[in-house]
Input
Amino acid sequence: MARCLVLLNPRAGTLKDLSEAAAPQGPAKRVEQAFAAAGKAVDVRMAPPRDLGSVLDDLGRTDSHDEIIVGGGDGSLSRSLSKLLATKRTFGVLPFGTMNLLARDLGVPQEMGEAISALARSEPRRIDLAAINGRPFHSISGMGFFAQMARAREAARGLKGFGRYAGFSFAALRAFLRSGRSRYELVIDGAPIKVDATAVLVTNNAFADAGWRRPRLDLGEIEVIVAHAGTLRQRLKLGVDVVLGGWRENPLIESFRAKKAVVEKIRRRRVWVATDGELTRETFPITYETLPGAATMLTPIEPAGMVSRAPVDDERAAGREESAGG
Output
């Protein structure tokens, strides 16, 4: 039986709530017992974001675990992707964040008990990642309005209860109004295009037409989504369509599927970029590319929703890596 290590981010929102509910037993013990009840023996460690890198470095050198599950949000997993890949282990995600985009697309349930039960009966499957300037990410990376929203979330992070939601709503509205017209030069698989846009979003594989779910994670492509600049009324309509799921039909939206895309912002040297919910300051030009079959992840045998069903195939994966390497 595979030896599995579960690394929990104590700063993740769901885990904070669990810490209070699990006292005095502690959340790590609760998670361990829940896995045991589902038939999977695991070792559980608390790993704050500042320590996660060193823990994974040690795993790569000396640890004998075969699988690693990260308990946290999209950002927790994204920050550790490079080191997780370096361990050459199969890894998974226990969704303790807000959006949990990758967990949803892998078919991992959002409720903790159901998620643990599903991960206890999972199998390894190879999925794509994408990269921004050589750094891997698993779901989305965006600038313009998307980055402003991430900054709004950071501004409201320290608030509690209703104050958190009120603070975020106010900050999000201000971000929406501040996200005006910017001129970008895009090079999509070698083809240049100039756009006036309020936002540019790059995704690892494409979202479905009706919402923010990816039905496949193994197509070996990225999608570049451009929200063209419009009037305030048009942008408000786009905001409503984003919430309700009809954004692809909005006339301000244009999208391109590609293997590689380069983004340049005219008359600007640096820009804020939100990648899997984490905000960074990037220098232009920004290069995005697909990393086909880069990760082997634990996927529920009976996923809660659509998921790529590509099985682990070492021969095919090796061919993809050679192709990706040029």
